[in-house]
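Q: Predict the assembly, please.
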Amino acid sequence: MTSTPEGAPLRSDAAIRVDRWLGRFEAALAAGDVEAAAGLFAPESFWRDLIAFTWNLKTVEGPAGVADLLRHTLGHTAPRGFMIDPAEPAVEAGGITEAWIVFETAVGRGRGHLRLQGDAAFTLLTTIYELKGHEEPQGQRRPRGVVHGADRGRTTWSEQRQRDAAELGITTQPYVVIVGGGQGGLALGARLRQLDVPTIIVERNERPGDSWRKRYKSLCLHDPVWYDHLPYLDFPRNWPVFSPKDKIADWLEMYAKVMELNIWTSTACKRASYDEQTGEWAVVVERGGREIRLRPRQLVLATGMSGKPSMPTIDGMAVFRGDQHHSSAHPGPDAYRGKTAVVIGSNNSAHDICAALWEAGADVTMVQRSSTHIVRSDSLMELALAGLYSEAAVASGITTHKADMIFASLPYRIMHQFQIPVYDAIRKQDAEFYARLEKAGFLLDYGDDESGLFMKYLRRGSGYYIDVGASELVADGRIKLHSGVSVVRLTERAVVLSNGVELPADLIVYATGFGSMNGWAADLISQQVADKVGKVWGLGSGTTKDPGPWEGEERNMWKPTQQPALWFHGGNLHQSRHYSLYLALQLKAREAGIATPVYGLQGVHHLS
Amino acid sequence: MTSTPEGAPLRSDAAIRVDRWLGRFEAALAAGDVEAAAGLFAPESFWRDLIAFTWNLKTVEGPAGVADLLRHTLGHTAPRGFMIDPAEPAVEAGGITEAWIVFETAVGRGRGHLRLQGDAAFTLLTTIYELKGHEEPQGQRRPRGVVHGADRGRTTWSEQRQRDAAELGITTQPYVVIVGGGQGGLALGARLRQLDVPTIIVERNERPGDSWRKRYKSLCLHDPVWYDHLPYLDFPRNWPVFSPKDKIADWLEMYAKVMELNIWTSTACKRASYDEQTGEWAVVVERGGREIRLRPRQLVLATGMSGKPSMPTIDGMAVFRGDQHHSSAHPGPDAYRGKTAVVIGSNNSAHDICAALWEAGADVTMVQRSSTHIVRSDSLMELALAGLYSEAAVASGITTHKADMIFASLPYRIMHQFQIPVYDAIRKQDAEFYARLEKAGFLLDYGDDESGLFMKYLRRGSGYYIDVGASELVADGRIKLHSGVSVVRLTERAVVLSNGVELPADLIVYATGFGSMNGWAADLISQQVADKVGKVWGLGSGTTKDPGPWEGEERNMWKPTQQPALWFHGGNLHQSRHYSLYLALQLKAREAGIATPVYGLQGVHHLS
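A: Predicted assembly structure:
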């Protein structure tokens, strides 16, 4: 960087352009001039706000969307202090000027990201990372730990922890109950603990991590380590790229302990109901053989984004004499050595289970009913993830937090445009691999618009397999394949397909997917509440299993729903980590009595 | 930084000076010209080598010392590639030019630090951080975790872990046995695990961390969090400044688990003997009620730098009818509410125990036999530690690793010169505090040469108290004090002092310190081996409890001893973290069959 004669660093052209835009934007906001602010956005433009203005996760489009957002939020938000993050220089490339920004509102401190096309905003991201007066005790603010001095009434850390744990839920009430102690529940629980929001996590298993431990033995994370960090505590530099299930389970158990989470293990959540008058949930759990009634103000379902297992109804299911179960209930392959297995489905679970059964010495047939998107794990790492989540990214200064923010800065509406070339490159690089799969009869797709795996994940959460080895077994016939068929009926000992083939079977695994997460609400609360909330997950892209209209954000995830005080949390480790921050701040604001007027509460277009 | 017209950055004067020195040094080494190399050092100068040239921790002084070191080591070390660390600019201040350097040897890669006075070396630090061909699996080299592909003989991570743990020590032998599973043993164990050196840690308690958990309840770390990180896994940013004992215990337990250490808990180490012929130890441990004989090649004692408790012999100890025990066996104050306690001693343990007894409602008297150095914890943080280990240091780019290296770069011989002004400042700032203590009769000192706490720690490991509250109790008489006296005898119910005072007592705590760590070797191996090894800890400074001659490094710590294959490891968390690297590399080199000719093996001048 060069300097002026006085020694002050010169501003780059990019910085000057961003400064000018931010100055105009702030002036318009300060003047309450909604039209002027909206006029700073390009005709095709996107403002994504994560709770800073909207107390919602919300993307608006174009000047009209910006104006509408501001008309409803500007009065109480009181935004100010927009400037380029001093730690991050603005940059210009290909006609787009980019900058990380900071700002504040009446109640919080924010970070964001701006992309300018010429002098007009193309994308704006605004987020709140902390609430004024409720800053997390980190770094300079970390707790002292021990209270120096002499005190005859001293309570030690462990006495206090034991007392709190013994009282919470019994003589004192948690503000939040989180149902589910997987990575989602733990990440959110850790943030709420730091924000001093009394919280109980209810987990049906005996130990944190059991939701991983209890699954089939070859399971591992399909996402690499750089993508998987939990809040506050990164995996160490010697952690494996792909965590084996028992290792990630041990980490989660440790995490719950060192983060001092109040997790009720071996506890089943039986039912919940909301009293609109008192604003209180009655959540009945079974713990240690007796029912306990918790009365939190907020209820979070973190029971897995996959929702409830979808079991098909097939003629003859009652007469089949072998074992049959949904993939989520599959106990692993050990009992099926030398047996004949039929796996119905062709996505991640189907492939993993087929491979594990084959490894255990079973005779395995996969029944593929419709096309599937396959990406080799190595290719995904190299071509789709490496820029943001890799050792090279870390080395070039893209921390996990920064990668999360870059990802958040890309509007869902145009994300597929960035994804299509990635998957074009993967198809080209792995052409021979795909050709062999097709030769074996496997039906491939790359998404309705060729945008690949991540868009499928965001739109429908299914329809793909990240290949860690099973595809070779399919390609060379070690896993037998029948594709483009359906199952018409079962006999006592076989599966009968629509092409007339009869597959003998000792075991049938239904890898037939999962319903929407509001199914959990139906079970736990009521069908009425599940319908009031509507479908969870998906963007409204109008592609397969993600019907329109366009929603702009993931349906019902990490944000207010039509049911007051009911929240859905989860997703992959990246989402659990990043969005748990905004969900935790929404909950903290309510607990602290901060006004949280929600702009653009999502409507319900689909029930499941 | 300015640039040449061609765009290459200009070298600073400091960098040019360092480049020139390194060039001459390397040329002299390459030519085998020991005298020329030695001539590059100032008359008063220090070269500290941590295993790079010497396979020892060794400081030599002046050109003559440098020449001697090189005459014995240059031939096999083959050092080369000395250059300024590209990530760290050389700097000049007050006539001293400083630079971080990198280099390599025939077998390892090194980092170091150089201080020039004019053009002559004043201090040089050389260290090895990894052995070629034995690099740790971190970052780019981290393990993949899961093996992709299909394999009918697949062994999962957890199966492999269980198998390894079941076999090691039973059907296969560890290369190293570490006695003691506190922070020292765990830190070393973690490094050896990363270096793939089969290791068993033997710990007498039921759970890792119990050596903290089982102590008195108000115990906390007296060193702040920035000083306390373990290798590979930093405490998170929300970790308290001063860890309560149970919290650090939980962390250690978690650490042992996620680092996949083979720790045999509830296992007592009974005896050990070394067979010079086979180069093998026979280490007999009692585990699960039966004796198991381990046969490692290397034995590490990590049983606490404090060594065995020193109990005084006092007339009447057999007739005293109350409780009496050494401070290390003190069960905590709970049983002594309303009782009368006499604590003999006035260092850390004495103060902590007096305060805890007072808090519990006991009547407490401290018997101070000789002067003690007191520093308020806050002052120590502010004036002694903040530059290297604090939130501000971290913010200014001084990572824990860098702080460790800066500390390592200061020769012990002159360290007190840097410490004296720090404690002068503390005396001035806390003058009123010290005056009140003296008024209460407390005998203060600041070290034989006024160099304060850290030098006392390095020289004798005792003689001080980091005040976290007890001194106020002493100053205002809530803890009663008798100073400048000794205990002459006990009666059935009282302690009789040399000044004739008779103190009634229900409890006597002997906070009378600890012996040298070779006492553990005497118990475990033999008195003969303990004497062969000699005194452990201390610099030979010729100050109280640290008799000369000058040793240059801590006696017998983290380096070869006169007993082949016997090592001492420990110290505070900083030392356990930093020196565990060099000890681990010494062990790995031996395991890998790399020649490790030791230069300057320490002689024995004191038996204990």
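Chain B touches chain A through 60 residues (CB under 8 Å). The longest helix of chain B spans residues 573-591.
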